[in-house]
Amino acid sequence: MLITLDTTRADALGCFGGKPGITPRLDAFARECIAYDEAATTAPLTLPAHASMLTGLYPPRHGVRDNLLTAVPPEALTLAELARDSGCATAAFVSASVLERPWGLAQGFDVYDEPGALRPGPLSHVDERSSPETVGKARAWLRGRDRTRPFFLWVHVYDAHSPYRPDARFLAQAGGDAYRGEIAEADDSIGKLLDELRADPSWGRTTVLVAADHGESLGEHGEPTHSILCYRACLRVPFLVRHPDGWRAGEHSQETVSVVDAFPTLGAALGLVSPAGIDGIDLDHHAVGDDRGAYFESYAGYLNHGWSPIVGWIDRRGKYVDGGAPEYYAFGTDPAESNDLAGSGGVDLARYRARIAEVAAGTTLPIAGSTVPEDARRAQAGRLGYAAAGDASKAPPKPLEPTGLPLARDRMSELAAYYAAVDRANAGDLAGSIADLQTIVETNPGNVAALDMMGALLIRLGRWGEARAALERMLAKGPDRVTTRTNLGRCCENAGDLAQALVHYRRALELKPGAPDQAGDVARVTALLR
């Protein structure tokens, strides 16, 4: 069983140094597990990180660099496919629309249960359901499954993602800390899931891996939440493995592991042979060599705001980060990452760059939608305000490739202004938010996330012509996302330009294959044109 905790810092759990009493169920479970204290994500973004867990590949190789931009390609071999082909029952229960079926992670699952259409939430968020609801469905599946078959079950909880709105009981349990209150609720739900499995006859044969997809900055290094920077608050994740024979139970390991290791580790526990050439390593009764390192990246600043992408490599010596300029932080002695040693002359930075270059040179999977003609590959947008406006049509710069763009770490005031505009819109001041976003774009014309949000807000105000102009400006800069195409289609449809509306709707459906909303738009306008 794979349990993934969205947006969960390692130090939010008591078993990884957090305040006691907030996560009692996971803290107790950790005593049955090996806890990897220095586990890293591959990207501080939900879809890319989960794609790495389920394919065993780093983001440059599976091609998913941001949320709501590119689907995991069908050419990918997922852990669920490997398990199903070997005779396992496979099921997934996910809690957020960022992981819904069209984004490609349903490959190989007999059951893929996702949130349905929910009431609209804040502009900066995606549809989600609570961990009690998701876990309740997973528990029912466990009880009703075919017990003659082994199983692979993935359960994803999204509670800790902003905005933080925990139940009053869990807020009190976390001492008034809303973020940790969300984690307390997730902990309670996961405890019930573990109780269900513990009462099952299969418990004595079941390996359980619990990991977060990424952490949360909470203002550290100037980042309010996550997605842009790759400092410890977002990169380090809780990572627990429960082996049914008790191997290394209760131990805390300093070995370098990555979320990419979930695929080969759970595959080995199922008795499966992982394909050659994956990036993850098998942790099932295997120690990790001292020379092991792991790749990580964030292309969110590049794809959304016109800043330089960030790539890096972490190992037992330290962490190298390159977001247009090198940074290096020593392992174990600088948890706040406040002492950059890159310019000290005492670190072999070339060795880290060489490891990153090896990843960049590796075999990659095809990118979904890459067969679409170039003149049809322009703007797509993710969920409104959820910083996700990247370019699926053009290959992003390779890791370490110079871009000449601003350093993301120097642009946190611009990010704060963007989030403030989101908050202003959520408070109902759409016109004020549009004005704030226009100021951002005037200062940085490459901030396509601001352009995208402007277009969507202008539609809400019925200012269709202005919305179309803003979205076409975004289109000209290269981003190609589903909601941008959908919103442009609506602008064209409102103007009576049905032929152009159909072009945008068809492209939206290509970018999000099988999505019912996009399929409905295509069908409706096709019928009107007959």
Describe this structure in words.
By secondary structure, the protein is of the alpha/beta class. The chain has three domains: 284 residues, Alkaline Phosphatase, subunit A, CATH 3.40.720; 61 residues, no CATH class; 156 residues, Tetratricopeptide repeat domain (Serine Threonine Protein Phosphatase 5, Tetratricopeptide repeat, Alpha Horseshoe), CATH 1.25.40.10. It has 18 helices and 14 strands. The strands form three sheets. An eight-stranded mixed β-sheet has the order 5-4-6-1-7-8-2-9, sandwiched between helices. Strands 11-12-13-14 form a four-stranded antiparallel β-sheet. A two-stranded parallel sheet has the order 3-10. A hairpin with a 3-residue loop joins strand 12 and strand 13. Helix 1 packs across helix 7, helix 13 packs antiparallel against helix 14 and helix 17 packs antiparallel against helix 18. The protein is globular, with a radius of gyration of 22 Å. The chain starts with a strand and ends with a helix.
